[in-house]
Amino acid sequence: MPLLSKDPLIQPITLLDKLGELFLGIYDQAKLRTLQRRVNKWLATEGPDKEVIFRQTHQPEAMSLCE
Fold this sequence. Notes:
Helices cover 45% and strands 0% of the residues. By secondary structure, the protein is mainly α. Helix 2 crosses helix 3.
């Protein structure tokens, strides 16, 4: 999806409007839910990576140098 590749934050309703302009009469509001599902699937599989943070918890004396 070239429009999603350029701007992954674009909303499905905006995509539906642009598709409606390009293909007159084929894409109407009845197709919105299907487009939302497909956009979500695309974002999950092909979209940009999400930032992942692994929090570290340090427990006292868990790794001490004393024996």
